Each structure stands twice: as structure tokens, then as C-alpha cells.
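Quick one: structure for this chain?
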Amino acid sequence: MSLTEAFLAEPSVATLTTLRPDGSPHVAAVRFTWDHRAALARVLTVASSRKARNLAAGSGGRAALCQVDGFRWITLEGPATVHDDSGRVGEAVRRYAGRYGAAPPNPPGRVVIEIAVDRIMKLNL
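Got it. Here's what it folds into:
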């Protein structure tokens, strides 16, 4: 496993940045999973959250996830979509439990944000 993959497997928190309808950034702390083979990052949330609404309001909005630990960091960026499909949400739940060692919360209206990562920036990995 590469240093980058090992870092992305640590049970860390990251920030997710999306754009509000007025173009200003919205930044939220999130837990996420990374699927190297599919180049896909997943974030569980609820449809009524600001981050999900930001992405649903635009067509093909972009998002950036940034995980930091001291002088090591990585940003995963790409087009993001919101899904309420039970298969996609279920896959996100499965991966979340694997990374964080426990099932995620299960609030009403749960959705998954999928980021098709097309740009990776990193330091010391």
C-alpha cells in the first residue's frame, strides 16, 4: 500500500468544500471514504444539509475534500453528485464502517455525495 493510500485509510476527518448558490465557499468537517480503483470519494450526509443542497442546486458542481495531519495533506477534487439510491448509500455505509470501525449515524433523509476525483494535490505523501 502506498503512503497516499495508507493516509487515506486512516480514520481521519477532512473538510469538504462546496459552493453556495452565491458562489461563496461552504466548508464542513466530514468523514469520508476513498475508492482508489474507481477514483471515487464518498461522503454520507442528509439531503437537507447545506453541502448536499449546494451540489443539488448546481448542475455538475465540484467539491474538494482535504485531509490534513501536521505537514501531510491531500486534497481530492472533482465533480460531485448527490444520490439517495439505496445501493449507493449502502456501499457508502459499508465503506464507512470499514474505515471508521463503526456504522455511521442513520438519520432520516440520508444521502451519499460521490466525488469523481479528477485532481489530487498532496504534500509529504
